[in-house]
Design the sequence.
């Protein structure tokens, strides 16, 4: 007999309670702090609509070493009947070994019986196996360290969204940009605009993470890249990553359906020598 969504959510709630007891010192961070509460209310009949998917990160100190790793997890509503989305990052891994590790971790998860809760087992697998990939990373770094230290692709991405309102999303954008050493801005409200600039791999990681697993009304409108030897800071248009909140107008009701003053935004772009991007983002020429 097929497992229902309700039964899957009951199992997810059970696993989250177990994981939170395993990591009581804030090693487990929920993307939406209320996601577990929403599932509980749905199961109790207090909430009628299906709760959002659970997404969280587990920050791990690998046993018997100084290595740290982060496991990012997204649980589909049909998990554990459907495979969870799991991705691991660690500064101790080069990109090749990180990809190898995640492929092997994915194979391990797929080898388990569907219907079986597996996140705690994935954590244990990571702790048992990551040292092998770290050792390989060190070996791979030896002949290429000079090139990796001096050669980069500077990248800038202009991202457009129908709107950016939710506080947890805004915090996620700021946190990810700062963690990845990206500069730029996030224009909140309606429309929403994000500009990020920095090392290309870190820009692409940011782009992959913020729209994961499914941000419908968002697109990358324009990109700029340049090969750089040495420091990249001279190519940056922005000194830091900041959130922009300009004068708004419109309906301040429950939906917070307000529009940003695009004239102020155009002036901001002008101050940073990138007013040409206004037409690319909005399809109209900016007027002063």
Sequence:
């Amino acid at each position: 007999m097929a497992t229902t969504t309700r039964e899957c959510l009951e199992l997810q709630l059970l696993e989250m309670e177990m994981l939170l007891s395993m990591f009581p010192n804030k090693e487990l961070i929920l993307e939406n702090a209320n996601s577990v509460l929403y599932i509980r209310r749905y199961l109790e009949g207090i909430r009628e609509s299906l709760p959002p998917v659970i997404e969280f990160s587990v920050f791990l100190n690998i046993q018997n070493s100084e290595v740290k790793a982060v496991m990012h997890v997204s649980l589909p509503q049909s998990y554990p009947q459907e495979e969870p989305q799991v991705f691991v990052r660690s500064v101790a891994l080069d990109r090749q070994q990180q990809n190898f590790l995640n492929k092997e971790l994915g194979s391990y998860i797929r080898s388990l019986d569907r219907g079986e809760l597996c996140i705690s087992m994935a954590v244990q697998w990571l702790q048992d196996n990551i040292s092998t990939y770290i050792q390989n990373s060190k070996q791979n770094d030896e002949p290429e360290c000079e090139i990796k230290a001096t050669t980069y692709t500077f990248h800038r991405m202009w991202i457009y969204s129908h709107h950016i309102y939710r506080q947890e999303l805004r915090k996620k954008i700021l946190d990810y940009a700062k963690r990845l050493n990206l500069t730029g801005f996030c224009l909140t409200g309606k429309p929403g605009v994000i500009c990020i600039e920095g090392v290309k791999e870190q820009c692409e990681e940011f782009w992959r993470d913020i729209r994961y697993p499914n941000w419908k009304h968002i697109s990358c409108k324009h990109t700029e890249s340049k090969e750089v030897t040495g420091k990249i800071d001279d190519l940056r248009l922005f000194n830091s990553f900041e959130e922009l909140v300009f004068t708004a107008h419109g309906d301040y009701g429950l939906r917070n359906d307000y529009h940003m003053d695009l004239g102020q935004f155009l002036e901001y772009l002008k101050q940073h020598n990138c007013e040409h991007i206004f037409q690319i983002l909005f399809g109209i020429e900016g007027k002063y």
Summary: Residues 119-141 form the longest helix (23 residues).
